[in-house]
Amino acid sequence: MTPLWLARHARPLAAAGLCYGALDLRADTEATRLAAQGLAHAIPQRLAVHFSPLQRCEQLAQALRALRPDFIFKPDARLREMDFGDWEGRSWQAIGAEALAAWTDDFAEHRVGGGENVTGFMRRVAEAWDELATAPTLWITHAGVIRAAGLIARGQRHVERADQWPAWAPAYGEWTRIERPSGAVPISSGPAIRA
């Protein structure tokens, strides 16, 4: 069993109800600092840390690097959140029910807002999973990538319908751990902020 830790970035500086995936938003500085402190205490030594190059994840990687110089850090574009095309930066309400229905009706292949489709998104996360499966690793990433990794851990690399997509992901600044490559479901999780 090879553990994979999955940490979600801290709360982004964005209005409630905003669609953002590939939109490069900053995260709250204090929440990022607290998340990095929690991770620094929870994660074992000499770990490889791969992070999404979007700044909300890079902020957490840099804050963690200051606390844990024993880690090896590397940006990995495959760990970016799904690209919602021209939906990025718009409110979900403004996107509207008709556009959302077009996506859910063809969940696997519809290019959301002209951006990415779920099939391509799952493929790139699976590529990172397969390449990085040989050593204990921490991914600093996004809710969608964590959900995709959870599916891959259970042996599911294709999602056909919207109701197959997991609802659960760690909250902002929290983490979870899964085992690779056995396909085990998440075995532990917790907030990056520890009392």
From TrEMBL:
Claim: Repeat is one of the keywords in the record: no
Protein name from the UniProt record: Phosphoglycerate kinase
Superkingdom as given in the UniProt entry: Bacteria
GO terms, molecular function: kinase activity
Signal peptide boundaries: none
Keywords: Kinase, Transferase
SMART domains cross-referenced by the UniProt entry: PGAM
Statement: the UniProt record of this protein carries the keyword Kinase: yes
InterPro entries in UniProt: His_Pase_superF_clade-1, His_PPase_superfam
Source species taxonomy: Bacteria, Pseudomonadati, Pseudomonadota, Betaproteobacteria, Burkholderiales
